[in-house]
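$ fold --in a.seq
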Amino acid sequence: VRWEQIVGSQVAQHARVEHFAPGRIILRASSSAWAQQLRLLMPGIERAVDGALEPGAGAVEIRVLGPAGPERVAVRGSRGPRDTYG
């Protein structure tokens, strides 16, 4: 809820906080297009986050990741996804 108050509903709808630690926030974008948009909006997002922090809290590094893809599992001895069959 607080995230939406800080960055606004449109940004919060397309960027969720995946990891938060002192001095670092990692965002996960809803699509690759929104990941790019968030990178372009980063100066405003950084100002909004800095304004929401307590004075003297220090700088926060914000990193944007694209949407999470399916998890790949490697099986030893099996053919890879680019192997040709036959």
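$ fold --in b.seq
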Amino acid sequence: MKQQIIISGLGGQGVLFVTRLLAQAGLEMGLDVLTSETHGMAMRGGTVLAHVKVGGFKSPLIRKGSADMGLYLVRSNIPIHGDFVKKDGYRVVNTDQSGEYLFVDATNQARGMGSLLLTNLILLGYAVANKALFCDAEIMRKAIVKVSNSKNRELNLSGFEKGLALKG
């Protein structure tokens, strides 16, 4: 199993947390994992891009046009990072607007659950439910349990489950 994934969002959206979850899921499956993040102005709401490579890769960076999957925590980053995903790759986008991608309004769903912090987990669950990622729901649940702190573990799992239930 090999997959190249980019995660694109804005500072404060949990891009790095999703990166950690994907890396842990790969490790749970006994796969080699490489990650790299570009923080930039992340602390001030700037664009953040993370690269995750699962399988036998030598370099952590993903070339434009090579990613198998793009997870966009904000639709406005598609023009910025959209060219990383290959033509037949998956794009999973947090938006209420349809397009040439899988989409779910994860922000509105998170708001309904009482915590905008769940946006990234809802989007991740939606991606897993739509088989856009290398792992299944059980592996991701294990990763969430391992990576989440004890205070947020159950909340994080509930956000992920919400995303799974919204399969498109």
